[in-house]
Specification:
Largest sheet: 5 strands, mixed
Helix content: 40-55%
Structural class: alpha/beta
Strand order of the largest sheet: 3-2-1-4-5
Bound molecules: 5'-O-[(R)-(carboxyoxy)(hydroxy)phosphoryl]adenosine, zinc ion
Radius of gyration: 20 Å
Shape: globular
Number of helices: 11
Distance between the termini: 38 Å
Low-confidence stretches: 350-355
Amino acid sequence: MTLGIETSCDETAAAVVADGRHVLANVVASQWDTHLPFGGVVPELASRRHVEVVLPVVRRALAESSVQPADVDLVAATVGPGLPGALLVGLTAAKALALAWNKPLVGVNHLVGHLYAAFLDGAGGAAGDGGPSWPAVALIVSGGHSDLLYVEDHGRYRVLGRTRDDAAGEAFDKVARLLGLPYPGGPALERLARRGRPAAVAFPRPLLGAAGEDSLDFSFSGLKTAVAHHLEERGRDGPGAGEAWLADVAASFQAAVVDVLVARAGTALVRTGARTLVAAGGVAANGALRAALASLCDRLGVRLYVPPPALCTDNAAMIACAGAFARAAGRCDDLDLDIEPRLGWPEAVVEDATR
Ligand code: KG4
Ligand code: ZN
Protein backbone atom coordinates (compact mmCIF):
# COMPACT_ATOMS: atom_id res chain seq x y z
CA MET A 1 0.00 0.00 0.00
CA THR A 2 1.74 3.14 -1.23
CA LEU A 3 0.91 6.74 -0.37
CA GLY A 4 2.09 8.98 -3.22
CA ILE A 5 2.57 12.75 -3.00
CA GLU A 6 3.09 15.04 -6.00
CA THR A 7 3.65 18.82 -5.86
CA SER A 8 6.05 19.52 -8.73
CA CYS A 9 4.02 22.30 -10.34
CA ASP A 10 0.51 23.64 -9.80
CA GLU A 11 -1.32 20.53 -8.62
CA THR A 12 -1.27 19.31 -5.03
CA ALA A 13 -1.91 15.60 -5.29
CA ALA A 14 -2.00 12.57 -3.01
CA ALA A 15 -2.98 9.01 -3.91
CA VAL A 16 -3.18 5.57 -2.39
CA VAL A 17 -2.21 2.73 -4.71
CA ALA A 18 -2.32 -0.99 -3.89
CA ASP A 19 0.26 -3.38 -5.37
CA GLY A 20 1.58 -0.61 -7.60
CA ARG A 21 -1.47 -1.07 -9.85
CA HIS A 22 -4.81 -0.42 -8.23
CA VAL A 23 -5.76 3.18 -7.53
CA LEU A 24 -7.75 3.27 -4.28
CA ALA A 25 -7.79 7.07 -4.08
CA ASN A 26 -6.47 9.77 -6.39
CA VAL A 27 -6.94 13.30 -5.05
CA VAL A 28 -5.80 16.27 -7.14
CA ALA A 29 -6.27 19.81 -5.85
CA SER A 30 -5.69 22.05 -8.84
CA GLN A 31 -4.51 25.61 -8.36
CA TRP A 32 -5.78 26.85 -11.72
CA ASP A 33 -7.93 29.50 -10.03
CA THR A 34 -4.86 30.88 -8.19
CA HIS A 35 -2.85 31.27 -11.41
CA LEU A 36 -5.70 32.14 -13.82
CA PRO A 37 -5.31 35.94 -13.49
CA PHE A 38 -1.60 35.63 -14.39
CA GLY A 39 -2.07 33.39 -17.46
CA GLY A 40 0.51 30.91 -16.14
CA VAL A 41 1.97 29.39 -12.99
CA VAL A 42 3.47 31.83 -10.46
CA PRO A 43 6.04 29.71 -8.55
CA GLU A 44 5.82 31.49 -5.19
CA LEU A 45 2.02 31.34 -5.17
CA ALA A 46 2.19 27.66 -6.10
CA SER A 47 4.45 26.88 -3.10
CA ARG A 48 2.16 28.72 -0.69
CA ARG A 49 -0.93 26.89 -1.93
CA HIS A 50 0.89 23.55 -1.64
CA VAL A 51 1.71 24.34 2.01
CA GLU A 52 -1.94 25.08 2.72
CA VAL A 53 -3.46 22.02 1.10
CA VAL A 54 -0.90 19.21 1.11
CA LEU A 55 -1.95 17.68 4.43
CA PRO A 56 -5.72 18.04 3.81
CA VAL A 57 -5.18 16.36 0.43
CA VAL A 58 -3.26 13.48 2.05
CA ARG A 59 -5.98 13.13 4.68
CA ARG A 60 -8.63 12.98 1.97
CA ALA A 61 -6.74 10.31 0.02
CA LEU A 62 -6.50 8.17 3.17
CA ALA A 63 -10.19 8.72 3.99
CA GLU A 64 -11.37 7.95 0.44
CA SER A 65 -9.37 4.72 0.34
CA SER A 66 -10.28 3.78 3.95
CA VAL A 67 -6.58 3.21 4.55
CA GLN A 68 -5.11 3.96 7.98
CA PRO A 69 -1.55 5.25 8.37
CA ALA A 70 -0.68 1.91 9.96
CA ASP A 71 -1.69 0.13 6.70
CA VAL A 72 0.66 2.25 4.58
CA ASP A 73 3.78 0.31 3.53
CA LEU A 74 5.59 3.06 1.64
CA VAL A 75 5.59 6.83 1.19
CA ALA A 76 6.64 8.03 -2.28
CA ALA A 77 7.10 11.65 -3.33
CA THR A 78 8.27 13.56 -6.40
CA VAL A 79 11.83 14.91 -6.08
CA GLY A 80 11.99 16.54 -9.55
CA PRO A 81 11.92 17.89 -12.16
CA GLY A 82 9.75 20.83 -11.19
CA LEU A 83 9.55 24.14 -9.35
CA PRO A 84 12.00 24.08 -6.39
CA GLY A 85 9.67 25.60 -3.80
CA ALA A 86 6.76 23.44 -4.90
CA LEU A 87 8.81 20.22 -4.84
CA LEU A 88 10.17 21.07 -1.39
CA VAL A 89 6.67 21.19 0.10
CA GLY A 90 5.62 17.73 -1.10
CA LEU A 91 8.92 16.06 -0.31
CA THR A 92 9.06 17.60 3.17
CA ALA A 93 5.50 16.46 3.89
CA ALA A 94 6.41 12.95 2.70
CA LYS A 95 9.53 12.86 4.89
CA ALA A 96 7.59 14.03 7.94
CA LEU A 97 4.93 11.35 7.42
CA ALA A 98 7.52 8.63 6.78
CA LEU A 99 9.31 9.63 10.00
CA ALA A 100 6.15 9.95 12.10
CA TRP A 101 4.68 6.67 10.84
CA ASN A 102 8.04 4.88 10.69
CA LYS A 103 7.61 3.91 7.02
CA PRO A 104 10.13 3.66 4.19
CA LEU A 105 10.47 6.63 1.85
CA VAL A 106 11.20 6.61 -1.89
CA GLY A 107 11.82 9.70 -4.00
CA VAL A 108 10.40 9.56 -7.52
CA ASN A 109 11.44 11.22 -10.78
CA HIS A 110 8.29 12.94 -12.12
CA LEU A 111 9.06 11.84 -15.70
CA VAL A 112 9.42 8.22 -14.62
CA GLY A 113 6.12 8.69 -12.78
CA HIS A 114 4.38 9.68 -16.03
CA LEU A 115 5.81 6.56 -17.70
CA TYR A 116 4.71 4.24 -14.89
CA ALA A 117 1.13 5.52 -15.04
CA ALA A 118 0.94 2.93 -17.84
CA PHE A 119 0.94 0.22 -15.15
CA LEU A 120 -2.14 1.59 -13.40
CA ASP A 121 -5.52 -0.02 -13.97
CA GLY A 122 -7.26 1.25 -17.08
CA ALA A 123 -4.07 2.11 -19.01
CA GLY A 124 -4.71 -0.49 -21.69
CA GLY A 125 -5.20 -4.16 -22.22
CA ALA A 126 -7.78 -6.32 -20.53
CA ALA A 127 -8.47 -6.53 -16.80
CA GLY A 128 -5.72 -8.48 -15.13
CA ASP A 129 -3.24 -7.27 -17.73
CA GLY A 130 0.15 -6.92 -16.09
CA GLY A 131 0.93 -3.59 -17.74
CA PRO A 132 3.40 -2.88 -20.52
CA SER A 133 6.19 -5.33 -21.15
CA TRP A 134 9.64 -4.10 -22.08
CA PRO A 135 11.19 -3.28 -24.43
CA ALA A 136 8.81 -0.50 -25.36
CA VAL A 137 8.79 2.86 -27.04
CA ALA A 138 7.43 5.61 -24.80
CA LEU A 139 6.11 9.01 -25.80
CA ILE A 140 6.05 11.34 -22.79
CA VAL A 141 4.38 14.61 -23.71
CA SER A 142 3.68 17.20 -21.05
CA GLY A 143 3.98 20.91 -20.35
CA GLY A 144 7.74 20.68 -19.94
CA HIS A 145 8.74 17.62 -21.99
CA SER A 146 8.24 15.96 -25.37
CA ASP A 147 10.40 12.88 -25.12
CA LEU A 148 10.51 9.75 -27.20
CA LEU A 149 12.24 6.91 -25.37
CA TYR A 150 13.32 3.38 -25.83
CA VAL A 151 12.66 1.59 -22.55
CA GLU A 152 14.78 -1.53 -22.50
CA ASP A 153 13.83 -2.55 -18.99
CA HIS A 154 12.90 -1.00 -15.65
CA GLY A 155 15.33 1.87 -15.14
CA ARG A 156 17.02 1.42 -18.53
CA TYR A 157 16.08 4.28 -20.80
CA ARG A 158 17.47 5.70 -23.98
CA VAL A 159 16.22 9.03 -25.24
CA LEU A 160 15.52 8.67 -28.98
CA GLY A 161 14.16 12.16 -29.51
CA ARG A 162 13.26 15.30 -27.61
CA THR A 163 12.02 18.76 -28.39
CA ARG A 164 14.47 21.30 -29.74
CA ASP A 165 12.37 24.20 -28.45
CA ASP A 166 8.85 24.20 -26.99
CA ALA A 167 7.33 21.08 -25.44
CA ALA A 168 4.07 19.82 -26.98
CA GLY A 169 2.00 20.96 -23.98
CA GLU A 170 3.74 24.33 -24.00
CA ALA A 171 2.75 24.73 -27.67
CA PHE A 172 -0.87 23.89 -26.78
CA ASP A 173 -0.78 26.46 -23.96
CA LYS A 174 0.79 29.21 -26.09
CA VAL A 175 -1.53 28.68 -29.06
CA ALA A 176 -4.50 28.56 -26.70
CA ARG A 177 -3.45 31.96 -25.43
CA LEU A 178 -3.22 33.29 -29.02
CA LEU A 179 -6.77 32.03 -29.54
CA GLY A 180 -7.95 33.90 -26.46
CA LEU A 181 -8.59 30.76 -24.44
CA PRO A 182 -8.11 30.67 -20.66
CA TYR A 183 -5.24 28.96 -18.81
CA PRO A 184 -4.68 25.99 -18.73
CA GLY A 185 -4.79 25.99 -22.50
CA GLY A 186 -4.57 22.35 -23.59
CA PRO A 187 -8.02 21.14 -22.53
CA ALA A 188 -9.68 24.40 -23.64
CA LEU A 189 -8.05 24.17 -27.07
CA GLU A 190 -9.18 20.56 -27.45
CA ARG A 191 -12.77 21.56 -26.66
CA LEU A 192 -12.69 24.36 -29.25
CA ALA A 193 -11.02 22.07 -31.83
CA ARG A 194 -13.96 19.63 -31.63
CA ARG A 195 -16.07 22.19 -33.50
CA GLY A 196 -13.43 22.89 -36.16
CA ARG A 197 -12.07 21.22 -39.31
CA PRO A 198 -8.60 19.66 -38.91
CA ALA A 199 -7.79 20.22 -42.62
CA ALA A 200 -9.01 23.84 -42.75
CA VAL A 201 -5.52 25.36 -42.46
CA ALA A 202 -2.38 23.58 -43.74
CA PHE A 203 -0.02 24.34 -40.84
CA PRO A 204 3.55 23.02 -41.17
CA ARG A 205 4.55 19.63 -39.77
CA PRO A 206 7.92 20.67 -38.29
CA LEU A 207 10.90 18.41 -39.03
CA LEU A 208 8.63 15.94 -40.77
CA GLY A 209 9.76 14.61 -44.12
CA ALA A 210 12.58 17.14 -44.45
CA ALA A 211 15.25 15.86 -46.83
CA GLY A 212 17.96 13.97 -45.01
CA GLU A 213 16.18 14.43 -41.69
CA ASP A 214 16.14 11.16 -39.85
CA SER A 215 16.15 12.67 -36.38
CA LEU A 216 13.36 11.76 -33.99
CA ASP A 217 13.46 15.22 -32.40
CA PHE A 218 10.47 17.53 -32.22
CA SER A 219 10.18 21.27 -32.80
CA PHE A 220 6.97 23.13 -32.04
CA SER A 221 7.90 26.79 -31.88
CA GLY A 222 7.70 27.26 -35.68
CA LEU A 223 4.21 25.81 -35.66
CA LYS A 224 3.19 28.25 -32.93
CA THR A 225 4.62 31.12 -35.02
CA ALA A 226 2.69 29.89 -38.08
CA VAL A 227 -0.53 30.01 -36.08
CA ALA A 228 0.30 33.52 -34.85
CA HIS A 229 0.94 34.70 -38.45
CA HIS A 230 -2.26 33.11 -39.70
CA LEU A 231 -4.27 34.87 -36.98
CA GLU A 232 -2.58 38.19 -37.77
CA GLU A 233 -3.04 37.90 -41.54
CA ARG A 234 -6.72 37.11 -41.38
CA GLY A 235 -7.27 39.55 -38.54
CA ARG A 236 -9.31 38.47 -35.60
CA ASP A 237 -12.04 40.96 -36.50
CA GLY A 238 -11.83 40.68 -40.28
CA PRO A 239 -14.39 39.12 -42.62
CA GLY A 240 -14.96 35.43 -41.87
CA ALA A 241 -13.34 35.75 -38.46
CA GLY A 242 -15.26 34.49 -35.49
CA GLU A 243 -15.92 31.39 -33.48
CA ALA A 244 -16.04 28.95 -36.43
CA TRP A 245 -12.77 30.27 -37.85
CA LEU A 246 -11.02 30.05 -34.46
CA ALA A 247 -12.31 26.48 -34.11
CA ASP A 248 -10.82 25.66 -37.54
CA VAL A 249 -7.47 27.13 -36.48
CA ALA A 250 -7.54 25.14 -33.21
CA ALA A 251 -8.43 21.89 -35.00
CA SER A 252 -5.77 22.45 -37.67
CA PHE A 253 -3.07 23.22 -35.09
CA GLN A 254 -4.03 20.16 -33.05
CA ALA A 255 -3.93 18.00 -36.21
CA ALA A 256 -0.39 19.21 -36.98
CA VAL A 257 0.86 18.37 -33.47
CA VAL A 258 -0.83 14.97 -33.53
CA ASP A 259 0.60 14.17 -36.99
CA VAL A 260 4.13 14.92 -35.84
CA LEU A 261 3.87 13.00 -32.56
CA VAL A 262 2.29 9.96 -34.21
CA ALA A 263 4.76 9.92 -37.12
CA ARG A 264 7.72 10.05 -34.74
CA ALA A 265 6.28 7.31 -32.53
CA GLY A 266 5.69 5.16 -35.62
CA THR A 267 9.25 5.64 -36.85
CA ALA A 268 10.62 4.80 -33.39
CA LEU A 269 8.54 1.60 -33.26
CA VAL A 270 9.71 0.49 -36.70
CA ARG A 271 13.36 1.35 -36.01
CA THR A 272 13.53 -0.38 -32.65
CA GLY A 273 11.19 -3.27 -33.41
CA ALA A 274 9.47 -2.73 -30.04
CA ARG A 275 6.01 -4.30 -29.83
CA THR A 276 4.67 -1.99 -27.13
CA LEU A 277 3.98 1.74 -27.15
CA VAL A 278 3.37 3.77 -24.00
CA ALA A 279 2.01 7.30 -24.23
CA ALA A 280 1.62 9.49 -21.16
CA GLY A 281 1.92 13.03 -19.80
CA GLY A 282 -0.71 15.76 -19.93
CA VAL A 283 -0.91 15.97 -23.73
CA ALA A 284 -1.72 12.24 -23.87
CA ALA A 285 -5.08 13.21 -22.33
CA ASN A 286 -5.90 14.68 -25.76
CA GLY A 287 -8.64 12.70 -27.51
CA ALA A 288 -7.36 13.32 -31.05
CA LEU A 289 -3.86 12.11 -30.09
CA ARG A 290 -5.23 9.04 -28.30
CA ALA A 291 -7.34 8.08 -31.34
CA ALA A 292 -4.43 8.57 -33.77
CA LEU A 293 -2.06 6.51 -31.58
CA ALA A 294 -4.66 3.75 -31.36
CA SER A 295 -4.93 3.54 -35.14
CA LEU A 296 -1.14 3.63 -35.53
CA CYS A 297 -0.81 0.70 -33.13
CA ASP A 298 -3.61 -1.18 -34.88
CA ARG A 299 -1.80 -0.76 -38.16
CA LEU A 300 1.55 -1.90 -36.75
CA GLY A 301 0.12 -4.66 -34.57
CA VAL A 302 1.65 -3.01 -31.50
CA ARG A 303 0.13 -2.96 -28.00
CA LEU A 304 -0.76 0.51 -26.81
CA TYR A 305 -0.80 1.63 -23.19
CA VAL A 306 -2.25 5.06 -22.47
CA PRO A 307 -3.44 5.86 -18.96
CA PRO A 308 -6.97 7.29 -18.60
CA PRO A 309 -6.88 11.10 -19.09
CA ALA A 310 -6.92 11.83 -15.35
CA LEU A 311 -3.78 9.71 -14.93
CA CYS A 312 -2.03 11.38 -17.90
CA THR A 313 -2.12 14.85 -16.37
CA ASP A 314 -0.20 15.39 -13.13
CA ASN A 315 -1.36 13.12 -10.33
CA ALA A 316 0.09 11.25 -7.37
CA ALA A 317 -1.10 7.76 -8.35
CA MET A 318 1.66 7.61 -10.96
CA ILE A 319 4.18 8.67 -8.30
CA ALA A 320 2.93 5.95 -5.93
CA CYS A 321 3.16 3.41 -8.76
CA ALA A 322 6.74 4.33 -9.74
CA GLY A 323 7.67 4.41 -6.04
CA ALA A 324 6.25 0.93 -5.49
CA PHE A 325 8.24 -0.46 -8.45
CA ALA A 326 11.43 1.20 -7.15
CA ARG A 327 10.83 -0.18 -3.65
CA ALA A 328 10.22 -3.67 -5.06
CA ALA A 329 13.60 -3.36 -6.78
CA GLY A 330 15.19 -2.63 -3.38
CA ARG A 331 15.28 1.16 -3.32
CA CYS A 332 14.79 3.04 -0.07
CA ASP A 333 15.81 6.66 0.49
CA ASP A 334 17.09 8.39 3.61
CA LEU A 335 15.48 11.37 5.25
CA ASP A 336 18.27 13.56 3.89
CA LEU A 337 16.87 13.01 0.39
CA ASP A 338 16.74 16.35 -1.43
CA ILE A 339 14.76 17.82 -4.31
CA GLU A 340 16.29 17.80 -7.82
CA PRO A 341 14.48 20.54 -9.75
CA ARG A 342 16.44 19.94 -12.97
CA LEU A 343 16.25 16.17 -13.02
CA GLY A 344 16.10 14.50 -16.45
CA TRP A 345 15.71 10.87 -17.46
CA PRO A 346 17.92 8.55 -15.42
CA GLU A 347 21.21 7.75 -17.11
CA ALA A 348 20.58 5.76 -20.28
CA VAL A 349 22.27 2.37 -20.24
CA VAL A 350 21.32 1.03 -23.66
CA GLU A 351 24.00 1.56 -26.29
CA ASP A 352 22.03 0.90 -29.43
CA ALA A 353 18.26 0.60 -29.39
CA THR A 354 18.14 -0.92 -32.84
CA ARG A 355 20.34 -3.89 -32.01
O1 KG4 B 1 1.79 16.28 -17.34
P1 KG4 B 1 1.19 17.59 -17.08
O2 KG4 B 1 -0.10 17.64 -16.32
O3 KG4 B 1 2.20 18.53 -16.33
C1 KG4 B 1 3.55 18.56 -16.65
O4 KG4 B 1 4.29 17.68 -16.17
O5 KG4 B 1 3.92 19.47 -17.44
O6 KG4 B 1 1.02 18.30 -18.50
C2 KG4 B 1 0.43 19.56 -18.60
C3 KG4 B 1 0.36 19.94 -20.05
C4 KG4 B 1 -0.14 21.36 -20.24
O7 KG4 B 1 0.68 21.99 -21.19
C5 KG4 B 1 -1.55 21.16 -20.76
O8 KG4 B 1 -2.01 22.21 -21.59
C6 KG4 B 1 -1.42 19.86 -21.52
O9 KG4 B 1 -0.56 19.07 -20.74
N1 KG4 B 1 -2.73 19.21 -21.67
C7 KG4 B 1 -3.33 18.98 -22.86
C8 KG4 B 1 -4.57 18.39 -22.56
N2 KG4 B 1 -4.68 18.26 -21.20
C9 KG4 B 1 -3.54 18.77 -20.68
N3 KG4 B 1 -2.94 19.24 -24.11
C10 KG4 B 1 -3.77 18.90 -25.10
N4 KG4 B 1 -4.99 18.35 -24.91
C11 KG4 B 1 -5.44 18.08 -23.66
N5 KG4 B 1 -6.63 17.52 -23.47
ZN1 ZN C 1 3.76 16.11 -15.40
